[in-house]
Amino acid sequence: MSEIILKVENLKVQFNIKSNKHLFDFGYDKLKAVDDISFEIKQGETLGIVGESGCGKSTLARAIIDLVPTTSGKIFFEGKNLTNISKEEKWLLKKDMQMIFQDPLASLDPRMNVGDIIAEPLLSFFPKMNKKQRKEKVLQTMTKVGLLPNVINRYPHEFSGGQCQRIGIARALITEPKLIICDEPVSALDVSIQAQVTNLLMELQKEMNLTLIFISHDLSVVKHISHKILVIYLGNFVEMAEKNELFNNPLHPYNKALISAVPVADPKREKNKKIDFLDGDLPSPINPPSGCVFRTRCPKVIDKCSISKPEITTINDKHTLSCFNF
Amino acid sequence: MLKFIIRRVLIAIPTLLVLISISFVLVHSAPGSPFTDDRDIPPAIMKNIEAKYHLDRPLIVQYCYYLKDVVTWDFGPSFKFKDYSINDLVNKSFPVSIKIGFLAFLFALIVGVAAGVIASLNQNSKIDYSVMTFAMIGAAIPNFVLAPALVLFFAIYMKILPAGGWNGGEWKYLLLPVFAMSFRYIASIARIMRASMIEVLNSNFIRTARAKGMSNSYVIIHHALRPAILPVVSYLGPAFVGIITGSVVIETIFGLPGIGQLFVNGALNRDYNMVLTLTIIIGGLMILFNTIVDILYAVIDPKIKY
């Protein structure tokens, strides 16, 4: 068994939002973007995080990499608690934790050429490297992600979306991180490019023993790349399981609805498939329902749901969920 | 790049020509002549004077004479101050205006950009609000109100700075005019800088740079400042024009011997040569400056190609 590289315990992220209920209202409301989420990942594994738009997937990722401040909870990276170490230590750890973003073109500085973009983290983490060493390293990394060396002086707008994402990956890889957080890295790309980029990530993972957190709302992509999948709803833990277990044996009512909505690549089966539609809309994270946040839309709601939050139940060693029905 | 610069300079020539022609026609179509006076000059003498300055010839011939003057950069004598040539007068007052103008320009640029950046980094804090309030006041107060107010306060009430005059360009005499001239532009530049900086700081590639592990100051200097300053750079052209035009007012208020004052006197005296010469010099300066701004633009943003 490989060791646990990242462990998140009861993580909460809240934002203060101006409430503006009336003209002279200067108060703030709390938006609970991530509410009490715990999970752990082993080295070399991929954890897929899925959920609807606005459910807190990206905020969770950003909180781990320290782009947004956490409200409470603990994040352990290789045994170190990120929430109570000094700024310098945290900054040093960024060398081991890198992130890939959703919109590949917008995520690259349009006024820098590719070579500089990829080399930049080296300036920060390996200040002793000279220009030649840096260039060598850049070219090496570019080959690794399938970019030709002759594009090194071009600017981001001269590339296609898929190539831009390769630049983004190269830039994340150059510090030789242990963990890469991919925040919807393929959702802005078309399907064939999605496959290329996902496969590239998987190859790199094998080659460099990378740990990946892969955020997406596309269940089939997540199924392809992940070992374990975490489902979240309105910032709350719903269900986490090994990927086949999660797809073949979804237990949480929300997850059941989610899995049943995945399109099947067979018209006959797709026609006869029964989808568990959910009623209602996503509640506001500023004023979430009491108890279990899913109870307003849950087909199996019981009295208990509105009173308290369900604890996380372990079904077996591969499967945990948060629901009173189990 | 060199090709672009050469092309820009070539385009400037017809622009200047149009400028010369229009101002020539305008000045000459104004009623009266440089020699209209309270007392009547005998017709014979008047004829002699007019012949000396070619004023008796048809307008088109005068125009050709004038073009010759421009090309040889010898603008002849002033119509009013007959002991001086235009070149003498301009050579004496031009450095004064340039000194004040550039100081005001630099001051506005540095203070404006700094204030804008500080405000954007502390968005919606007290610092931000005070900078923006200051900018609002700056945009609202015209310089012909601000300048006398400054004089009243610093020269007459506090008695720490002189009320006007040049005194060979001593720094004490520069402070008030430079500040009065640049105040508006500090305000505008701060507002533009703040807005564009906030936009850039919220963009995705800044988030990427932060996630890469670059320090905050590095991100601001290397990634945010360059794109954020572009709107300011494009504002510099009009700002420079505004400072030059504004110098007419400021120089008159502070009694500075610059081209602004020459211009005003020239226009009042119908000193054709003087007005035309200054128009060409100021116009040329503006064209030059806009060219510099365009080139700067290309240097700052490699996406722009010519």
Descriptive notes:
The complex is a heterodimer of chains A (326) and B (306). Chain A is α/β, with parallel strands linked by helices. Chain A has 10 helices and 12 strands. Chain A has an 8-stranded mixed sheet with strand order 6-7-8-3-9-10-12-11, sandwiched between helices. Helix content of chain B is 77%, strand content 0%. In chain B, 33% of the residues are buried. Chains A and B meet through helix 3 and helix 5 of A and helix 8 and helix 9 of B.
Short description:
The complex is a heterodimer of chains A (326) and B (306). With 326 residues, chain A is an alpha/beta fold. Chain A contains 10 helices and 12 strands.
Helix content of chain B: over 70%
Order of helices and strands of chain A: EEEHEEHEHHHEHEHEEHHHEE
Shape descriptor of chain A reads globular
The structural class of chain B is mainly alpha
Task: Describe how the helices and strands are arranged.
The complex is a heterodimer of chains A (326) and B (306).
Chain A: E1 4-18, E2 28-42, E3 46-50, H1 57-64, E4 72-77, E5 80-81, H2 87-93, E6 97-100, H3 114-125, H4 131-144, H5 161-173, E7 179-183, H6 191-208, E8 211-215, H7 219-225, E9 228-233, E10 236-242, H8 243-248, H9 253-260, H10 267-272, E11 313-316, E12 319-321
Parallel strand pairs in A: 3-8, 3-9, 6-7, 7-8
Antiparallel strand pairs in A: 1-2, 1-4, 4-5, 9-10, 10-12, 11-12
Chain B: H1 2-29, H2 43-52, H3 59-72, H4 86-121, H5 126-140, H6 143-157, H7 171-201, H8 204-212, H9 216-254, H10 259-269, H11 272-300
